Amino acid sequence: MAAPSIPLEVFDSSIKLNFTEVSTSAIGGRVIACSDDFFVSRDNLIKPGPSISMKGQFGPNGALYDGWESRRHNPTFDWVIIQLAAHESHLHYVDIDTSHFSGNEAPQSQVFGLHLDQPAGDNLKLLPGDKRWEELLPVVTLGPNSRHIFELGDKAKEGLWSALMVRMIPDGGMARFRAYGRPVPPPLLSALPTPDVAPIDLLSPLIGGRIIAASDANFSPPSNLLLPGRGHDMSDGWETRRSQVGRGKYAPDGPLAGQERKEWVVARLGATGVIKHVEIDSAYHVGNYPVAAGAEATLCDAEWVTIAAKTPLGPHRQHWLATDSSVAPTAVFSHVRCSIYPDGGLKRLRIYGHPIAPTTSLTAPARTTETALPLTFEAFKPFGQVIQGWELATSAPKGVSFNRANQDTAAKFHRLTQVSPAATALGCLRAPAEHDVRTGATINIKSLQKSDSTKAFMPQGTGAAPGEVALNDGSASVVVVALAGEDGSPDLATAKSFLATAAQGVSFSENVWYSLITVNERQDYAILGSKDAEYTESAVDFDVYVPAYNPAPVKAVPPTPAPSAGAILASALHGGDAIHPVPVTEKDFAPFGELIRAYPAGYTNGVASGSPKPHQSWISTTTDTYPVHAGAVSSIGVYRSTKKIGLERGQVFDVKYMERHPYTSQSFIPMGKGSISGKGENALSPGGAFLVAVAMNGPDDRPDPATLRSFIMESGTGLVYRAGVWHHPVLVLDDTLDLACIETQVATGAGGVSDERDCELLTYEVEGQPFGRIAVPDL
């Protein structure tokens, strides 16, 4: 019986959206065997996107095509075996495309299917002579340069298929082969799982999730939203056209006149279920990401329910939105609608939850349990700010200025958080690990506190001074926050929980209720707050589940071996005397400022040995002596600092720059390093000592070369330069460091706008003579 042929316009407009292309390499389909691909590769056959013309292009074997082409004169047929993306799928249609093959197209084709009892992974091997192959599409005739859509029979639709064998009879070329079907969804649960059961992506195409409608797809299709991974550039996401107030569909006579500008996409979940959180990824959309996004859900044709309120988005990053507290934990949904405001592009959309049948009678849990989601700048914005660096300058949050700094050795993210006028005290806190979440853990939250001043916590690195014991890597912070209700007490309907890595600090806004819980390992925090702040504590009782966080230990790469002693001596003699850096101590650094580290000598109000509760030590005070009319702003930014060219271990470094800040102190806090695998920023390489070069002011109001000193700083020690202290810009020795910077400035320097009162920089390159020389330690 001949297979029915479907008109292209019918298939593309009304049929294709109801099925998943289970053969495409975009979601994991693979060509695992082939009889012959002499002219062009078998792998082209299942590439996403239409075939392109390569007319006039030739390779060593002949003309090039965007498809699969075999040698001539085959007496029987050529074949290719495709492992489908999903382990088991019901198959309904195939699209055999011969675009751009004319005169060398495959005259006929035939398709067979095979079922595997178990998922095979990447090591599957199948042969054309396997007795399990069953014919799904009888021999069909193909034409040149065209797509051919065939509806499959009941065997294909009702059976379960894991692999396909496509015959090309007798030989020739095919541009694309596409198999459309419905992957088998996961088993439906009969009850709500416990919090430690990880949710799955209910929108994954591998279980049948698919896009069914969208308001606009001008630049790229919304189906890209469901692809695995984070893509490779802006092309494999969903991007709409620009919208403008009063024009197009928002014109006075347009269909959406007077309405809020937005675009939307509707998707059918692969399985009905309860929704725990939404992931919206704007990867590679750095200048065209939406201002905000939100999500709604429905069960079939019921009313739409807001599951994630309209939330600001940032460029090139993943955003995790917890299901709104107003949504019943037993609510089951089948469809979601994601809206972006006003327009723009997204990379991926994921809906995490548990598959449950809508007819199941569910019992709500007796206790409320929040899940700690990865911390992001935008999600935390109602409660304060996140203090961190980013790999790409274009990833800076909207409104955060960025520029290259320190003679192009650092990327500076300015004014990530502003601070209250009273928040001038700098201190340190060594917090014990209160819980171990390496395999996941439920934490009972018993109290929250708030302050009438901002308070910032910046996790420091794990390095230690000589004679001290370094902290272990792998710490993290669970950040629990809530807004104040009308009566001032915590409004638990607004409560959110986040997991912050050791590379992320937080600043809590005034009167925001919070709890900061250190997990896995002890952690030192630099603190900026007010000594006189009034704190209020409120009893609460709810649980937070923290998913397993157990980063693999990464050993620091040893510094480059020092050159020979002769080379060092020659370098030193060539440049005259060089000073030798020494490990920094509070006493030696006292003429220039203070050190921020856990309970240095002389500070007795730190945590007592064995004490269950940590206590912060106030060590220094920030300074701001700008004229009132200057409009200076106190804030915390982050320098992502890299090693300076010419700064090599075991060699002499010429000090060519010295600077001071006449009106403000300047603090640098080396931050920790960490990441959540597959979520957010990648971790920086471990390690990260740095050098400090300072000098006293001379009689001529210039730095005195005779007083030049240099100190070795480990990543567990921060510092405060007093106002007016001459110093060299940060000198990172080996590995990239994020340095939180606390300072007051009139201008940031971003966009070429600066104010000479912020920084006085001197350059020493007259006749090749530097200000001084430093013998960089070898190890």
From TrEMBL:
Domain Allantoicase: 28-183, 208-355
Known catalytic reactions: (S)-ureidoglycolate = urea + glyoxylate
Gene Ontology molecular function terms on file: allantoicase activity; ureidoglycolate hydrolase activity; ureidoglycolate lyase activity
Lyase found in the keyword field: yes
Matching InterPro entries: Allantoicase, Allantoicase_dom, Galactose-bd-like_sf, RmlC_Cupin_sf, UAH_cupin, Ureidogly_lyase, Ureidoglycolate_lyase_dom_sf
Keyword field contains Lyase: yes
GO-annotated biological processes: allantoin catabolic process; purine nucleobase metabolic process
Name of the featured protein: Allantoicase
Originating species: Apiotrichum porosum
